[in-house]
Structures are given as C-alpha cells and as structure tokens.
C-alpha cells in the first residue's frame, strides 16, 4: 500500500520510485553535471516591475545573471530597469512591455530578450492577479499566462528546437497544495499551475527538451496583508480568510527570492517547493495515484 504523508493537514502522496511496466518512471534526478551557474545566465521574469518579481530580478542579478523585466506596467517597468541598471550595470538589464494574456505580445518579449542577450536560460512565470471579483481575468493571467510562458520557454530553450535547455520556475502558492477557502478561484488557478508543472516537468518532456519545469509555492507574503478584503467575491469570505491565514507568518519578499536561487540551480524537474513561515524551501513529495 502506498505510504501517505500530511503537510499542513493535507494528504500528499510521495513519489513513486518504481514505474509500472510499460510506463515511464515518474521521477528522475537531474544530472549534477548540468547544475546551473547563474553567472551570465539570462532570466526572463514576468510581473517583474514591482513586488516579488522585482525581488527575483534583484537576487538573480546579485548572483551574476542578466534579467529581462517583463510587465504590463511600462512606467514601473522602465523605472525598475533604470534603477537595477544603475546598481548592477545597464548591459545586464532589459525591460519588455508584456501582457501575459496576449500570446503574440508574450512571444515578442521572448524574441526581444533573445535579440538583446542572445539566449534565455531561465523563465520565471510570476505574473498573477489575486482577486476573485475579476475571476475571468484572474484565470487568464494566472493559469493561461503560465501556460503561455511555459510553452514559449520550451520552444525558445528546448534542445529539440535548437536551444540549449534551461529552467522554468512557475510561481504557485501555498494554495497549490492547500485550498484557500476565501478565494476559491485563485486557489483553482494555483492548483492547476502545480499540475501543469508536474506534467511538463516529467522525465518525458525533460528528456526531449532539456528544460526543467519546477513549481515554487510561497505561503503568505507581507504585501498580501493589505487590502485583502477587496479580493473576495463576497464580503462574507472575510471569516474564511481568517481561517486561511491562521498560524501563518507573513514572509518578506527577499526571503522568498533568496530561497529560489538554489532551486533554479539544481532542483529536479517536476519538483514542488513550499516556502512558508520564513523557513527554508522544502520539497514536497507528490505523485499521481496509480490507478
């Protein structure tokens, strides 16, 4: 019988080390000789003008990388690019206006980044909306935007397309593994991002493309505490929010950004990482139930 584990009160099924006959093994280890050194590596980051996305860019730059700041807000994006360029070198920073709900515009951001830096090595699908009042847009940004970014990353970085491989970090949430009752639609998008990342991160796709796909699930962030009641589809969901955040400690953006660096460098494709309560990132064992 399969052993069960619980994380934050939720049932998680550990990885299967032995695949069934006729099926691909569900887990695989990254060849450590491919461990990524961030020096001169190019990271395309969405939702990067402010907040967590900007903090990711800063941390990657500190480790010697280059960044393409992709955001819908051109004023904030250009301002961030100017500030980071002054600190880390203008030749290492690029801004691309990008609406992740528009495939052509997203594709153009990839092409512009390739033209400027001659490569893309890391893609962080970070852009999101957390507001169930605008649930159709929420789904299009959070889920469809991540799908578009993952497919474009596989196309531009995939060895089967002439690329040299790379890594995709899809930003989920603690709600990817524990439903958030106050915002069920947001929770649904983050659950789906986990499934997308597990599927695209499978050995089958990794062996074809050389692109690792990983999902990172940050729990409550400091900037999530303001105006949270404006994100609910109903004012009655305030009580559910209090239950959702009970026992959680808000985290600094800088902490999450620091945790993501070792994940980028050598985490296994298809792996799930939880960053909660200001602690180090923890891999969550998970796999599909064998039917």
TrEMBL record:
<dbReference type="Pfam" id="PF00106">
    <property type="entry name" value="adh_short"/>
</dbReference>
<dbReference type="InterPro" id="IPR002347">
    <property type="entry name" value="SDR_fam"/>
</dbReference>
<dbReference type="GO" id="GO:0047034">
    <property type="term" value="F:15-hydroxyicosatetraenoate dehydrogenase activity"/>
</dbReference>
<keyword id="KW-0560">Oxidoreductase</keyword>
<protein>
    <recommendedName>
        <fullName>15-hydroxyprostaglandin dehydrogenase [NAD(+)]</fullName>
        <ecNumber>1.1.1.141</ecNumber>
        <ecNumber>1.1.1.232</ecNumber>
    </recommendedName>
</protein>
<dbReference type="InterPro" id="IPR036291">
    <property type="entry name" value="NAD(P)-bd_dom_sf"/>
</dbReference>
<comment type="function">
    <text>Catalyzes the NAD-dependent dehydrogenation (oxidation) of a broad array of hydroxylated polyunsaturated fatty acids (mainly eicosanoids and docosanoids, including prostaglandins, lipoxins and resolvins), yielding their corresponding keto (oxo) metabolites. Decreases the levels of the pro-proliferative prostaglandins such as prostaglandin E2 (whose activity is increased in cancer because of an increase in the expression of cyclooxygenase 2) and generates oxo-fatty acid products that can profoundly influence cell function by abrogating pro-inflammatory cytokine expression.</text>
</comment>
<comment type="similarity">
    <text>Belongs to the short-chain dehydrogenases/reductases (SDR) family.</text>
</comment>
<dbReference type="GO" id="GO:0005737">
    <property type="term" value="C:cytoplasm"/>
</dbReference>
<dbReference type="GO" id="GO:0016404">
    <property type="term" value="F:15-hydroxyprostaglandin dehydrogenase (NAD+) activity"/>
</dbReference>
